[in-house]
């Protein structure tokens, strides 16, 4: 998040001190037990830390006293980073909005007319939790457990899919490349294809991946190619009733079987569109919930020691985690802020978390008529980013590129 | 309002050091023109464990005091019951009190150099007391004290080198190898001087030095020859 003015660091620290106790489910640290890692109350208050060239890097969350989130600051930028162990994009956005609202209010006298006006404005926004309001019980809910139905069969196992090849960047580096474009133009294009923004962008993503696969597998018999699969995270709060502030998202993974031949962009977008129409259903999503929760509630697994679980979970993650996907595109949607906060926020960016399996991931967010498509990459090759942006450019969409990596384009 | 010249954030008027990067804040002026040059390295402050508060320190201190009082009492009572004298129990008593003081030093002092000095004094004192109790002050004078001094002479340059060298790697390991080699030579000299041999050295330390010296030199060579051109982290990156 880039503000219009330099961040007042002391004021931000004071705002953190006020707002963090409002989110008791985030004011925690990871503790190691005999059977599980648990999140326990952390009486400390996090300090803002300086941002670095590579965002989203190692967070020592297993260390005592370390919060599974951090607020990074540099110049005019505030960059909250959250571990997925704590929450998802929705929770992080609500916390960020609440933090910013507190940042505006903190140094004002509570009896001043400006404070009262701002307070009213923020209280009216359901996505801003004010520091003087108590946390509601439903915010603590483990929504996965609430929607777990042991009678539902688990989904079929996914196939082995194509992964982007590439030489890894040095440890500790994460290349971020953001394309800034008009939301309206993307909406118009998506409408032309009878699809939503996410479906349209996923189509472009698939199309670019297909292009790379055709290049990489040019000497391999097409019948032996691995299919392409893109991970599309879905916020479950809109589909299953829950107000939890903890993690509550699942992924849909449309598949493109490139063994069958080449697909045109229009065809891909239509396939993604129809896939989403059929799969974005609470029954299908509950199947995934059942698969994920079954392991947690199984009595034998529950009593197995943590070190056994750690070994087992590593193996499960290797086979069933991100290795089931060729890429990921996560759309946080339209971020809306109260006018007084919009005045101080210039741009908003959503940097996807790094993944050593996928290499490149993509995050999308739109704010004040601008859509920002951000690629986070752990590999040296920039083919995917370049292909996505050139495909969009070929539709006449002007894109302004920014990032933390200069000189390679 | 004053701004940090390094990370560009605004700070309170009374702030003298930037809370983010610890840069000294100059007197008021316009916001610095940053070229979006973010620091390359992660900020280490976040990763450091939070130091204990004064209250927590006191709690830990009392916990250890209580913990050590149990063996201390047992040892004294057993000694008294057996001989109606405090004799052999003085040795474990000195040991336990020494560890207790060591923990207290670690708890209440933060500066590295001060800790180093205090621990050195503690070790010398413990050694002196134990030897005096055993009626062997000469052992302290001819053996313990020189060995403690030699150890300190070995550790000090290694620690200073590791702290102030800009690139840490095989060079620190090389330095440690050399320090061990020199320590062995010193120990050999001490043994020869304190026993009635007519040689300056007994010879074994020369073999140790001949083995460790070139290994240390090789490590230094690898570090300074290839360190700049080759990233070991990247080379060994799995």
Report on the structure:
The complex is a heterodimer of chains A (409) and B (238). With 409 residues, chain A is an alpha+beta fold. Chain A folds into two domains: 2-135, Chloramphenicol Acetyltransferase (2-Layer Sandwich), CATH 3.30.559; 175-403, Nonribosomal peptide synthetase, condensation domain (Chloramphenicol Acetyltransferase, 2-Layer Sandwich). Helix content of chain A is 34%, strand content 19%. Chain A contains twelve helices and 15 strands. Chain A has helices spanning 9-19, 89-105, 113-123, 143-146, 183-192, 197-216, 265-279, 282-297, 299-303, 306-320, 339-342, 383-394, and strands spanning 2-3, 28-32, 37-41, 49-50, 69-74, 77-82, 175-182, 228-235, 249-252, 255-256, 327-334, 345-347, 360-367, 370-377, 400-403. In chain A, strand 13 and strand 14 (370-377) form a beta hairpin. In chain A, helix 1 packs across helix 2 and helix 5 (183-192) crosses helix 6. The two termini of chain A are 24 Å apart. Chain B is mainly α. Helix content of chain B is 63%, strand content 0%. Chain B contains seven helices and no strands. In chain B, helix 4 (137-164) packs antiparallel against helix 5. The radius of gyration of chain B is 26 Å and the shape is flat. At the A-B interface, helix 1, strand 4 and strand 5 of A face loops of B.
